[in-house]
Amino acid sequence: MLLDFDKLGALRGVLIGITVAVCLFLILPIVFIAALSFGSSQWLIFPPPSWTFRWYHDLFADPRWFYAALTSLKIAAIVTVLSVVIGFLTALGLNRGRFPGRDALRALFLTPMILPVVVLAVALYALFLKLGLAGTTFAFVVAHLLIALPFSIISIGNALEGFDKSIEDAAILCGASPWEARLRVTVPAISHGIFAAAVFSFLASWDEVVLAIFMASPTLQTLPVKIWTTLRQDLTPVIAAASTLLIAFTILLMILAALVRKGPKT
Amino acid sequence: MSEPFLNIRGIRKTFGSFTAVRDVTMDIAQGEFMTFLGPSGSGKSTTLYILAGFQDPSGGDIFLDGRSLLATPSHRRNIGMVFQRYTLFPHLTVGENVAFPLRIRRRPQAEIAERVRAALKLVRLEGFEDRKPANMSGGQQQRVALARALVYNPPVLLMDEPLSALDKKLREEIQFEIRRIHQETGVTILYVTHDQEEALRLSDRIAVFSQGEIDQIGTGPELYAAPATRFVAEFIGDSNFIETSIVSTDGRQARLVLPGGAMIDGVPLHGAASPGGRAALLLRPERIDLQRGEGEGALAGEVYDVTFLGNNVHVLVGMNDVAPVSVRIPFGHAALAGLTPGERVSLRFNAADTHAFLEPPAA
Ligand SMILES: Nc1ncnc2c1ncn2[C@@H]1O[C@H](COP(=O)(O)OP(=O)(O)O)[C@@H](O)[C@H]1O
Ligand SMILES: [Mg+2]
Question: Has residue A46 been placed in a domain?
Fold first, then answer.
């Protein structure tokens, strides 16, 4: 290897220092928020004078937070299912199809990833307003599906890339119809890619805030929107508690995804 | 071959302007082991895939038991296939893999268990039911694939270079197994390979493919003794080719002039030739009689090299204006004692053992 870690000498210390700094930079805000959510200070003073569960109590006592979380879950769940199904079909078409403009089409499907989300949000808002669909669950799901789909197409596409189509052909000669072969053989064989697609799609919707602010209505608010609107009214540690739960759930899903992705290799 | 069983009629396949398979026609008897032999890219797999239904032919038809197969989709053709690559379903155990075709056919549980056991016994993998494919060697995986392809008793089994990823010793071991399984089950097998030894070892008949066409169909000995084209002669067995010119011909046999001036009469001729044309004379290395010194042989030359190859010895003889000719002599033959490079030798052969193939006129 060109850069052998063991032979770097004094540089090693510098490298370790930089790595630790980057990790702290990434983790500290989360630790900070989590600490504040348990702090007794009304004004989010750090370090907290003493510790309390009061803000969590307040959080669970207010049904509006509960409904926001429920709305988030519902939308993320619908987006996940649709994203995985449509992502699988799209990836299959891009992987197996032999047609002109295939690469251009693949690039087109991935544009939501590079398009500024605000631009997408304004455009969608204008469209749904015109169609009379603004503030509906449908509009919400469509908006989040747009940003979730590229994740599905990429992870399922990669899994299909590594899957030998001869295996599907073998299933067909065994008597399975083409769709039976795909569902009973191809899908289980690329399940790690499908699972990754599901987790990324869920998270793309679960902690998304920009599109959500545009798609939300007073009666339809996801958790990030609720945090945002509450934040604008007053700065209460309840927000820190809600944020901490949001982050905890996200981290849990990431760990789960990492565990599953490790699975098929062993 | 009184009954029609599998009839391939004028199958053609084009990809754009490129013709991958042209006019492939053959009749295969029930229980026959037919091998498609040819170099890579000669259209063997494409023909097999058309039989499997993964490709539609651009022309021609295929009949199984007198009925055209083409309108039937792959999954209803009830054909078995073992692929070149490992195609076991990775998420299923060996037992579940073999059971898969029966599950699809909704056979009763007891019957499935019984037939899976029998199929695994056939390929000598009893007791491997609960293994995952990832924990098996390549040879074992191909045997499971064979069990999976045979468990539903298909009338025809297709095999596309199933052993090409295995090393030589293992390949020979499984070739032997395939022969036994063919004899035990009586299934009709269409086998693709580019390895002549494998083809000769396994097949009842061999179809030699060259550039999308069948050059010749016959048993191994037929192809060896009476090759229809220079290509077949080169592909089956070892061969020397010597440039000659045609003195006279009666259409089936010819009188030729060898380099060096000697004449040879009664050589079986392939292709319509006229006197004055050029022909390549096939000499099998093991059909040449080597004599030491300047004898009365048709060709004279000098020993370039002597190589010991176990049961026989390979002697390379160089001549003026001709590519060196290789001669194979059984070990211990009198002609070999003390034979060293540089020695003059003469070569004799029977005209009946040779073949002449027409060469295109020199450009
Ligand atoms: N889907 C395809 N598109 C274009 N050309 C193909 C396709 N499949 C095969 N060919 C071409 O057809 C020829 C025959 O291929 P194949 O039947 O696989 O040969 P073999 O099995 O004898 O090695 C090759 O030149 C190959 O490149
Ligand atoms: Mg091939």
Answer: no
